Amino acid sequence: MSNTPEVIRTERFLSRSTFSRLFELLRDEGYTVIGPKIDQEAIVYGQIHSIDDLPMGWTDEQGPGTYRLQPRDDDALFGYVVGPHSWKSYLFPPKATLSEANQVNGSWVFSVSEEVPPKYAFLGVRGCELAAMRVQDRVFLSGAYVDPIYQGRRAAAFIIAVNCTQAAPTCFCTSMETGPRCHSGFDWGLTELPDGFVVEIGSERGEQMLTALETTEVSAQQQQAAESARQQAVNQIQRTLDTNNIRELLHANLDHPQWDDVATRCLSCTNCTMVCPTCFCSSVEEVSDLSGDHVERERHWDSCFNVTFSYMNGGNVRDNTRARYRQWLTHKLASWIDQFGSSGCVGCGRCITWCPVGIDLTAEVRALRGETP
Amino acid sequence: MTDRTCHNKQADADIVAQETPCDVSLPPYFRAAAPMPDAAANPWTTRTVRIARIVPEVEGVATYDLVFDDDAIRKAYRFAPGQFNMLYLPGAGESAISISEDPANRECIAHTIRVAGNVTRTLAGLKVGSTLGLRGPFGSCWPLDECVGRDVVLVCGGIGLAPLRPVIYSLLHHREKFQRLTLCYGARSADTLLYVREFEEWSSKGLTIHTTVDRATPEWNGHVGVVTQLLERSDRFDPANTVLFCCGPEVMMRFTLMAGRRRGLTPEQMWVSTERNMQCAVGLCGHCQLGPDFLCKDGPVFRYDRIAPFLDVEGL
Q1: pLDDT tens digit string along A81-112?
Q2: Which of A17, A167, A371, B40 could pair with A366 as two cysteines, CB 3.0-4.6 Å apart?
Q3: Rounded distance, CA A220 to CA B158, Å?
Q4: Would you say A58 and A74 are in contact if contact means Cβ atoms under 8 Å apart?
């Protein structure tokens, strides 16, 4: 959050050539490095083996319903904003086995699946994405019950944040007070410069890891260059979401005609919920062998936009797009606050970019407020 | 609207607080019971239970008495009236089923179940001695402590009596703690009224039972009409000192709450048990939301004023 007091941390300068040794170092520490790479004309998150896998010299151009890769006029490794993937795929996997049931001597015997958490190093986590992790921490870890898969993976992850040095027209993290600056929640916080990185150490683990790489003092010039690069991202953010009394606004407008209006555009395709870094809805399926004596329970991501999501005997509670869009937006921006003490939106803009018809939640909120979009 | 920010923290605190009820003269089941300890570490922990008895109730409805295979778990298991279990039939799936047992009985757990979908249909095909899985108990409970010293009116429709049966047992075990006890019970027809065999005992212990049916058969001598009429006409409660619990189809509950208001009850005196699709039962899967609440952990039993703004909204 931008109102968090600035913690003065040790900063070191890591040259680009030394940075390339990072992958080997993380591998030696047992980490699988997940970071940005180009796949199917988008920058997505996947396993990274070396600096060569990073999207050097590429950027993304985004708008409502549009995303295109464009070459940059420099060799920046992290010169893009965010793509369709988020880190939640690695902390809250799209598919996971929860438990199993086996017939033993004619009786069912049950056991929960114990995962040995994979040790991920996340490279290139943005400010809004750190905020999304904090949101999901509250969902999965703060209540009377925890999600053991998320818990194990989250604790094991090494987080290398990279400050945004540019923003997309879809970004509104400043409205949600989640970025663009990475303040906390990382092991390393990088700011990319043409010849290397200013590294902020965010944890003891991070400090220890950095001792294995050759770094230098950050010069005043480098400090200033990093600051102006980060400021460029702030300056580029145009989109806003007025969060003032937003919980009351949405709860009080469940019958607003705008829901009918958005329902004529929304395809109920679930894209917004799949790309959202905080959406956590899931369903459980039975996966049985042919004998029926060995059954696994498999959890997979689900979406409140799926018609059967609200199924009860006798029918679906939210049997129309109006009800489903209202559920999504009201949950994200209002009831999330009731449930978890913070908004479910971090202002990353993915739901705007990846909506096939370009529905923009910030415009929907303006309409609900009676302002011209 | 009242400030509801972070109310889940309160729910969590309630779960912790349940071990030390505020009034020591009340049995522990007057407060919601926590699930089995290892469920906190992994909510998917499932126990083997065996069907000890099947009591056919009415067409398509039967009561299943379930017993844990592990005796230590049977002894440790506690629940409070209104809470539910997740019953799991491998291959068919899992279903949230309210508990119909007497909380003072520690031998088995009765679940009265209507065949409504895949899981309940598979269950209906099982025999005594068959095993299945159980997770629980989950959710909030009927606030029996609120009933002490007051008139209590239970209004239910059809299978809605099942989650209130533990309340009836509890009230009658401690009859002297309460004023007048009334059950207003409506069903489609006389042959769909649940637990009729127990009515005599309940009456003799001090529960006044009013029944009504939508469709009268020739042998039916009782009231015909909707259950809210029973509430409207009852002179067995003092609105200033009454607690009302209601469970049934959503439309029936809406009309009951309206009738309760007309009889002078405030929203703070009325509780309802709600239903939605549930998968995880612990507030992690997102299915059971109604407005700001997760029905599985904030409910299923709510005081009316808490969910009033959301109960009447179509498709919420």
Answers
A1: 999 999 999 999 999 999 999 999 999 999 99
A2: A371
A3: 76
A4: no
Please name the residue of chain A whose CA is at the shortest distance from the CA of residue B115. Answer: A313
Q: Is the pLDDT of residue B6 over 90?
A: no
Residues A143, B45: C-beta atoms closer than 8 Å: no
Q: Which two tokens stand for residue A310?
A: 């609200």
For residues B280 and B243, the answer to whether their CB atoms sit within 8 Å is: no
Rg over CA atoms, chain B: 19
Q: What is the pLDDT of residue B23?
A: 54
Tens of pLDDT along B271-287?
A: 999 989 999 999 999 99
Chain A, 76 to 135: residues with Cβ < 8 Å from chain B are 98-99, 101, 106-110, 112-113
Residue A113 and residue A132: Cα distance in Å, rounded? 26
Q: How many helices (H) and strands (E) does chain A have?
A: 15, 15
Using DSSP bridges, classify how beta strands A66-71 and B61-68 pair: parallel, antiparallel or unpaired: unpaired
Spatial strand order in the sheet of A95-104? A107-112, A95-104, A294-301, A282-288
State what percent of residues in chain A have pLDDT above 90. Answer: 95
Residues of A in contact with B297 (CB under 8 A): 143-145
- Chain B residues closer than 8 Å to A143 by CB: 8, 12, 282-283, 297
A216 forms beta bridges with A13
CA dist., res. A191 & res. A211, Å (int):
18
pLDDT single digits (tens) A211-247: 999 999 999 999 999 999 999 999 999 999 999 999 9
Interface contact flag, A297 B44, Cβ < 8 Å: yes
Q: What is the pLDDT of residue A264?
A: 98
The region, left, alpha or beta by phi > 0 then psi within -120 to 50, assigned to residue B232 is alpha
Among left, alpha and beta (phi > 0; psi -120 to 50; other), residue B291 is left
Burial annotation A220-258 (CB, 10 A radius, 16+ → b, else e) = eebeebbeebbeebeebbebebebeebbebbbebbebeb
Chain A residues lying within 8 Å of B291, measured CB to CB:
251, 335
**Which letter, b or e, does each residue of B259-289 get, where b requires 16 or more Cβ atoms within 10 Å of its Cβ?**
bbeebebeeebbbbbbbbbbbbbbbbbbbbb
pLDDT band for position B315 (cuts 50, 70, 90): confident
Q: Residue B151: CA atoms inside 13 Å, Cβ hemisphere, count? A: 15
Q: Is B279 on the interface with A (CB under 8 A)?
A: yes
Q: Hey, is the C-beta of B128 within 8 angstroms of any chain A C-beta?
A: no
**Unique residue bearing structure tokens 């990279």:** A162
Compare CB distances from B40 to A110, A145, A280 and report the shortest one's residue. Answer: A145
Residue A67 — φ and ψ, nearest 5°? -150, 125
Paired strand residues for B132: B49
Amino acid identity at B120:
T
Rounded to the nearest 5 degrees, what angle is found at the Cα of B118, between the Cα atoms of B284 and B271?
Answer: 55
Q: CA dihedral defined by A228, A231, A237, A243, rounded to 10 degrees?
A: 180
Question: Span B252-256, mean pLDDT?
Answer: 95
Say yes or no for a CB contact (<8 Å) between A335 and B292. yes
Degrees to nearest 5, angle at CA A15 with A12 and A18: 105
d(C-alpha B248, C-alpha B159), whole Å: 7
